[in-house]
Amino acid sequence: MSPLLLTVALVLMAGIAAGLIRVAIGPTPSDRMMAAQLMGTSGIGVILLLAPVLAVPALIDVALIFSLLAAVAVTAFTRRRLTNHGD
Amino acid sequence: MDPVQLLSGAFLLVGGFFFVAGTVGLIRLPDRFSRLHALTKADNVGLGFIVLGLMPMAPDLFYGLKLVLVWLLVVIAGATGAHLIAKRALRGDGEDVR
């Protein structure tokens, strides 16, 4: 079973790498944020797939933290304003 | 190979396929909102299938519940994030390029 898990994890990591293309070419900050969201979701998938392979069940807590932090990152990004010169 | 393992492998492959579809959509689709649509839906479904495929490998019940919890959190965060990004893009505030 673990070769299949590793293969799917590899596909997900290739997806993360391909998402970097969108970060590079933009063109708006929204697109870059979407790519970051893709990386967060794929990263959670990779962690969940690696937990049985490495036999480290605690990795699922890492995935939980990742899912919470991804939500915080998107929210923080959308609260940013262009006209905000205060900070 | 018993049927449960076979089914779990099939779910994992389908999940990987949805992730690939989401990534291709993010790179290839022409405008911002269709990219948002491809990304948020395909990725959450892909993660759901991967969680389904990993379910038989859960060592105990609590682990399985945590798997479902991770997926639920990602779905809620994905939906909220998609709405926030779309609203922000519609208003055009904070965007560098018009």
Automatic annotation (TrEMBL), chain A:
GO molecular function annotation: sodium:proton antiporter activity
Record field: transmembrane: 43-74
Keyword Secreted belongs to the record: no
Top-rank lineage group of the source organism: Bacteria
GO cellular component: a single term: plasma membrane
Membrane topology category: Multi-pass membrane protein
This protein's UniProt keywords: Cell membrane, Membrane, Transmembrane, Transmembrane helix, Transport
Subcellular location: Cell membrane
InterPro entries: MrpF/PhaF-like
Membership in a protein family: Belongs to the CPA3 antiporters (TC 2.A.63) subunit F family.
Protein name, UniProt field: Multicomponent Na+:H+ antiporter subunit F
Lineage: Bacteria, Pseudomonadati, Pseudomonadota, Gammaproteobacteria, Chromatiales
From TrEMBL, chain B:
Transmembrane segments: 6-27, 64-86
Entry annotated with the keyword Membrane: yes
Keyword Transmembrane: yes
Keyword annotations: Membrane, Transmembrane, Transmembrane helix
Molecular function as annotated in GO: sodium:proton antiporter activity
InterPro entries, alphabetized: PhaG_MnhG_YufB (IPR005133)
Protein name: Multisubunit sodium/proton antiporter MrpG subunit
